[in-house]
Design brief:
alpha+beta; two-stranded parallel ribbon
Length: 70
C-alpha cells in the first residue's frame, strides 16, 4: 500500500527528535517539503513494503502464501 502524508509533520518531527529518535520514514511525496530537526535523518518511501525494507534492511523480504480455504 501507499504511504500517505500526515498533518503537522514539522511538529511531529520535532517531537520525535526530542524523544531521542535518530531517524524517521516519511512518504516519498514529502521529499523536499520538510526540513529535519538537527540529528534526525529522514528516509523516504512510496509504499509500506519499501518502508519496511528501510526499517528492517537485513530481514528477508518474502510474501506469505495465501491460506488454503478448502
Amino acid at each position: 500500500g501507499e504511504l500517505r502524508a500526515v498533518n503537522q509533520i514539522d511538529k511531529r518531527l520535532a517531537e520525535i527528535a526530542k524523544l531521542g529518535f535518530k531517524g524517521c520514514i516519511l512518504p516519498a511525496s514529502a521529499r523536499g517539503k520538510v526540513v529535519p530537526p538537527a540529528g534526525l535523518e529522514l528516509l523516504f518511501a512510496a509504499t509500506v513494503s519499501e518502508a519496511a525494507g528501510l526499517a528492517f534492511p537485513n530481514e528477508p523480504r518474502t510474501v506469505p502464501e495465501p491460506a488454503d480455504l478448502d
